[in-house]
Every structure is written in C-alpha cells, then in structure tokens.
Task: inverse folding
C-alpha cells in the first residue's frame, strides 16, 4: 500500500467519516503497522471495535492512543466509555475524571462521570456531575434525562403534590397545635421538614426529626435553617430504628408525628416503625399522630378503568391472553379517571396506631352491589384519624386538588357483571407491610 503515513491516515479518516468502515479499517491498520503509537489510528480503530461489540479490544486500542497523546481529553473520555461497558467502573471513573480535568468544559465526560458515580451508589455526586454538564451545555438531552432520573431516585415526584395537599397539611397542623406545646416531639420521615416545622411553631419544647435519605435530609436541613428554627429542631440523616435515646434524643419523646404512609397504607413500613418507636424512643404515655389509619374502598367499574387492566379484541384480533400479564394492583389518581362507583364505601382494614404490636390479618368482607355494571375490582384510599377532633382522607373526588397519595386499584382476575342487591365476597389480607384484596374462593 503506497503513500505516506499522513496520506494514508487522511484517506482512512475520510472513509471513517463517510461510514465506510470496511475501507477505513485496513488503512488505519496500515498506519499502525508503520507507526504503532499513532494516536489517531489507534483511537479510530478503537471506536470501530467498540461499535462492532469488541469492548475489550477497543479499550486496548484507545488506551494506546491516550498513552501517545495523554493531553487529549476525548481519548480519555472514550476510553472511559469502553471500560464502563465492561463493568470496569473504577477504571472508567478515572478515565472520565482525567478527561474532565484536561478539559473542564467537556460536558460528555462529566455526564459519563455522573453515570459511573450513580452506578457506584453515589447519587449526590452523580447529580452534581450531571448539573455541571448541563451548565456547560443546557441542551444536552442525555445529561438532562440522567439528572431527572437520578433526582427521582432521591426525591420521588409525589413529594411535591404531597406538600401542596392543603387539607392534609391543615389536618396535621390542627392536631399538632393541640398536642405539641411544651412536649418533646419525634417526627419520623421528615421529607422537606414540614411536620417538624409545624411542631416547632406549635410550641414543642424540642423537635427531633429523622430522614433516611441523606440527600433529602440535606435539603430538609436547609429548609429548617431558612425558616429560622434550627435551634428548635434537631435533624438526623438516618432511619428511626437507628436513633438512640441518650445519643440522638436527650430523652424519650412525648409525642410522635409521622406521615410514613403509602397510598396502600402499609408499604412504607409504618407498623414496624411504630413498634420500634414505642419500644425504644417514646414515653409509655406518648401521643401518636395520627392515632389511627384505615384503608377504605368501593367496588369500581367503567370503560376507562377497565382499559387500564384488560384488553379483548383490537383491530380484529383477540388479545385477551395478554390479560394474564396485567398487574394485580395499580396506583392511580382516580380523581382524574372517569369510573363507576358500584357499591357503598366500606372499611378494609383499620389500624389503631397507639398499639404496641401489630399482627398480620386476613378477613372476609361481604359487599353489597348498589349499581349495575361490570365490576373490575376495588378502589382503595387512605383515611387518617389525626386525633379525636381531626381526620383526613383522600377518597376519590373529581376535580380534587393536589394529593401526594394516590389511590390503589386492586383488580379481579376478570371483569364481573353485577346487579343491585348482589353480594361480592372479598378476601383482604396484609402482612404488616403490604396489602392485597381479591375475590374470595
């Protein structure tokens, strides 16, 4: 093959940029045969190897290019990409860090560095890297998506409508104004710190609060500082079952307040959390807010709801076999979905949160149908008794405002035609951390 190394390299690059890899590869290889350390040829051969699924070979070639031209940030960034694809995270991180140090405005390197930090479990560092990439390039789609996904892992979106839920906030505030004055308060699961702030404003002698997610705890601390209550509230970035009296609390608390309730009531582990608090963190006569919680429901039907779970014939084909893959339960805002209410409201489970222990339960519920239709399951919502005077619930209501708690729809195996006066027998059970509802056999 005739021509100087420079001529061959120029030809190879032209073929590569045109997508003509079959012509580019032998030319790059000929360059390397003459000049084994040539960084451009090694780098391009590495990129082609990576695109062909040969990540290990790609790393070897691009590493050779980076050794020949160590100041080239792009070589280090692409080396990191090939290492990351092989799961060699520590080496990939080092390569991305090198690229970013050589070229501080290298947005792709910062985005890639964020992805490694995230894979290694350092979400706060990952978020910082994604944000730096976006400061350099606000239109960087991949960095924007990565930042949104990372933030959603730290702070699920429901936190924001939850904080805007005025009826819930007012209910907690009323209960705390009655119970908190002069008392030592423990707030479990502080989130943005709202309940702790309410308790301090209500006149608590001191508030201790905790948050298991460090990134959320850091923001809650900033919220508390900004509201001038840092001297009244002590925040710990840990789970409540990691707190200890004498270390994290000076004395046992006289009042516990919490909102660690999921839409399905139990799946944020509120019952085990309360058991631990009663045994280790509270005085024997401590007040609990809420004092009780319940799951309520009604039989539900309607075409819009049925379409969320079942499919029959579409475009002339039967798709019904696919219904076997439909989820047994689904969280949704029923306020926003037209549906038929086929029964009166009924209580599924009620939990006295002042108890010392909670056991799994299973019970049969007989529900009388009030309206004819196709029943596809049970719509369930949450009800809280804050104290003797104040309650809150999120029963589905068309046009309802912001609500952090969704509703849960438990579907039957298949829709059932029902008539007024007929009775459906339901089997409801919970294991202390999750609940299920099904038709009784």
Result:
């Amino acid at each position: 093959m005739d021509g100087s190394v420079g001529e061959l390299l120029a030809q190879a690059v032209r073929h590569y940029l045109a997508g003509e890899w079959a012509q580019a590869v032998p030319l790059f290889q000929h360059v390397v045969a003459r000049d084994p350390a040539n960084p451009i040829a090694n780098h391009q051969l590495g990129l082609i190897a990576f695109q062909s699924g040969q990540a290990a070979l790609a790393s070897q070639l691009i590493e050779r290019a980076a050794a020949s031209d160590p100041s080239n940030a792009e070589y280090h960034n692409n080396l990191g990409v090939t290492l990351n694809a092989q799961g060699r995270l520590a080496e990939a991180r080092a390569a991305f860090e090198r690229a970013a140090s050589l070229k501080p405005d290298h947005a792709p390197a910062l985005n890639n560095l964020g992805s490694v930090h995230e894979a290694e479990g350092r979400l706060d560092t990952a978020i910082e890297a994604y944000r730096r990439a976006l400061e350099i390039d606000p239109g960087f789609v991949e960095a924007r998506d990565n930042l949104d996904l990372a933030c959603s892992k730290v702070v699920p979106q429901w936190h924001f409508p939850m904080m805007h839920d005025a009826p819930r906030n007012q209910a907690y505030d009323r209960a705390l104004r009655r119970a908190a004055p002069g008392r030592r308060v423990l707030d479990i699961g502080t989130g943005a710190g709202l309940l702790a702030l309410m308790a301090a404003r209500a006149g608590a002698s001191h508030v201790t609060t905790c948050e298991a997610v460090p990134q959320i705890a850091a923001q809650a601390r900033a919220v508390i500082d900004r509201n001038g209550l840092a001297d009244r509230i002590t925040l710990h970035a840990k789970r409540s079952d990691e707190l200890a009296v004498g270390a994290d609390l000076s004395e046992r608390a006289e009042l516990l307040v919490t909102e660690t309730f999921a839409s399905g009531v139990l799946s944020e582990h509120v019952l085990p959390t309360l058991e631990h608090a009663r045994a280790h963190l509270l005085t024997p006569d401590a007040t609990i807010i809420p004092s009780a919680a319940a799951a309520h429901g009604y039989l539900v039907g309607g075409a819009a709801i049925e379409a969320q779970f079942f499919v029959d014939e579409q475009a002339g084909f039967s798709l019904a076999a696919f219904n076997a893959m439909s989820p047994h339960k689904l969280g949704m805002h029923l306020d926003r979905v037209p549906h038929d209410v086929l029964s009166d409201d009924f209580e599924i489970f009620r939990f006295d949160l002042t108890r010392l222990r909670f056991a799994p339960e299973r019970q049969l519920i007989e529900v009388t149908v009030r309206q004819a239709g196709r029943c596809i399951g049970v719509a369930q919502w949450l009800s809280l008794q804050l104290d003797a005077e104040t309650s809150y619930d999120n029963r589905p209501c068309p046009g309802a405002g912001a609500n952090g708690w969704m509703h849960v729809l438990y579907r039957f195996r298949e829709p059932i035609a029902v008539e007024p006066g007929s009775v459906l027998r339901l089997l409801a059970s919970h294991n202390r951390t999750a609940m299920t509802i099904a038709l009784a056999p």
In short: The mean pLDDT is 93. The CA atoms of residues 64 and 143 lie 28 Å apart. The radius of gyration is 30 Å. The first strand starts at residue 184 and ends at 188.
